[in-house]
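Good morning,

Attaching, inline, the backbone tokens for the sequence recovery test we're adding to the shared suite. The designed sequence is right after.
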């Protein structure tokens, strides 16, 4: 095979493994990323079908075990102060924590990504105005805003309504986290858009007469999807931490407990002073493992982006 044919073949291969396939290949090359993907896959499985793994969610009326039993063959994670199996609670809590994290990240990416692309492409006064607006949210602490807005929205919306099986108590937390944590995403997307708008294919699209919104949709967005994926995974980790903190202080839904709610129950039951370390360890380790796994995957995708930048240079 000639050198030119070899170059052509390698170019075709790189094109075929672009986008999501390239991300998957990179994750498979790193041992830590493989472990992180396996962990998130197991957590997602437990969140999708918790009843198939551990049965229905145990409540104070359905619990049959004694209170605060340490881990054993019967109860692998021990029991809580009401006699509920902590493995059951932790697996069911995965669904709530992951759903809140994913939905919050989706809101963050839609708002931050949209504002970042518009600001970066249009430039001028629109860019300055949108970035000043983003800076306002950037300097304000997300948790403090969430702490203030969550009870207000709960009072306005109510606690009994359900949307797709999720009570509005949790949807309120989703909305609060999403609407208060988009500013950093907007900054990242804007910087990428500023670079892309000077590329040749964008200039050609302008000459053809495409509108700014069509150029953003057809030429800018496809080239920053990987950035959005990497940022979205990190946002999921941050959203889970924020939701856990809000639930820990009592702003969660006791009827749909998340990992933060379980930790809050442990604190209320004085588990640390009673030596019931397993009450804290189960949800705490679940939060820690999930956040670390998301961080590893996000770093792996960032490595892919940095490599692409070095190759283009």
């Amino acid at each position: 095979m000639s050198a030119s044919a070899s170059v052509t073949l390698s170019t075709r291969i790189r094109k075929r493994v672009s986008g999501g396939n390239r991300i998957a290949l990179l994750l498979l090359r790193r041992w830590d990323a493989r472990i992180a993907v396996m962990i998130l896959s197991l957590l997602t499985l437990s969140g999708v079908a918790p009843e198939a793994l551990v049965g229905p969610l145990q409540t104070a009326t359905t619990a049959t075990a004694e209170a605060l039993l340490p881990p054993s063959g019967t109860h692998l994670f021990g029991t809580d102060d009401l006699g509920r199996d902590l493995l059951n609670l932790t697996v069911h809590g995965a669904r709530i924590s992951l759903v809140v994290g994913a939905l919050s990240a989706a809101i963050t990416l839609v708002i931050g990504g949209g504002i970042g692309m518009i600001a970066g492409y249009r430039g001028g006064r629109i860019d300055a105005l949108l970035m000043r607006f983003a800076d306002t949210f950037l300097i304000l602490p997300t948790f403090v805003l969430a702490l203030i807005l969550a009870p207000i929205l709960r009072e306005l919306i109510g606690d009994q309504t359900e949307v797709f099986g999720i009570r509005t108590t949790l949807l309120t937390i989703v909305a609060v986290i999403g609407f208060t944590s988009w500013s950093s995403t907007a900054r990242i997307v804007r910087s990428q858009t500023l670079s892309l708008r000077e590329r040749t294919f964008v200039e050609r699209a302008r000459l053809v007469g495409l509108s700014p919104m069509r150029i953003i949709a057809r030429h800018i967005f496809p080239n920053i999807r990987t950035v959005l994926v990497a940022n979205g995974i990190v946002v999921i980790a941050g959203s889970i931490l924020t939701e856990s903190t809000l639930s820990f202080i009592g702003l969660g839904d006791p009827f749909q407990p998340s990992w933060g709610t379980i930790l809050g129950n442990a604190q209320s039951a004085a588990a640390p002073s009673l030596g019931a370390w397993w009450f804290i360890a189960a949800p705490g380790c679940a939060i820690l493992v999930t956040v670390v796994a998301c961080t590893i995957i996000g770093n792996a995708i960032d490595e892919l982006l940095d490599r692409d930048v070095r190759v283009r240079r």
